[in-house]
Amino acid sequence: MTQSLVAGLEPPYYTAVFTSVRADDPEGYAETSARMQEIVRELPGFLGYETARTPGGIGITVAYFRDLDSLGVWQHNAEHQAAKRHGRAHWYDRYSVHIGKVERSYSFERA
Amino acid sequence: MTQSLVAGLEPPYYTAVFTSVRADDPEGYAETSARMQEIVRELPGFLGYETARTPGGIGITVAYFRDLDSLGVWQHNAEHQAAKRHGRAHWYDRYSVHIGKVERSYSFERA
């Protein structure tokens, strides 16, 4: 889990917004999540991610990529695809993915 | 707070991803948040939103709009701008906003 925000990126860049409904602590989830983070961090063009989850509510993860090619490498990564198959079979009741091109962004930080 | 996912939208559409770090239950936040939801729901072109927040961690809200015009109406709404000013002064340590155009999305729902 990351606690810091992704900020200061120079547009254009791409976001993959992953929203999901699942049980609170499904078996094997934490290990797979940690492994996915290891993989994605090594990918060229990966710019960072954020994740939040309301207990008993929904989860949202946003991953940032420099371009669609780097995002595609992540989406087609074999371990990632296997994790998604497992997630559909065992963890997730529902999820959605929205792939967006960011042309504008801004940040605030308290002085 | 919404518990259901925004799904089944037909691209293209726009996302405003708002990520933030703030105290857990700041004074006046819940009331302002409820009022902002009232306003945005009435706006033409508003397609829905999702929000998640890890206790002690970060919050992520994703709002969906049909086009940049409707998103701009929301961003320039006077009550919304006043709420943002108040938020910068009193609630948020940091936040970022990423405005993206979604060209591709997909959803899963367990049978």
From TrEMBL, chains A, B:
Signal sequence bounds: none
Its Gene Ontology molecular function terms?
monooxygenase activity
Instruction: State its Enzyme Commission number(s).
Output: 1.14.-.-
Arranged from A to Z, the UniProt key words for this protein are: Monooxygenase, Oxidoreductase
Pfam families reported in the protein's UniProt record = ABM
- Per UniProt, residues of the ABM domain are 16-85
| Broadest EC class assigned to this enzyme | oxidoreductase
Task: Identify this protein by name.
Answer: Antibiotic biosynthesis monooxygenase family protein
Species the sequence originates in: Streptomyces lateritius
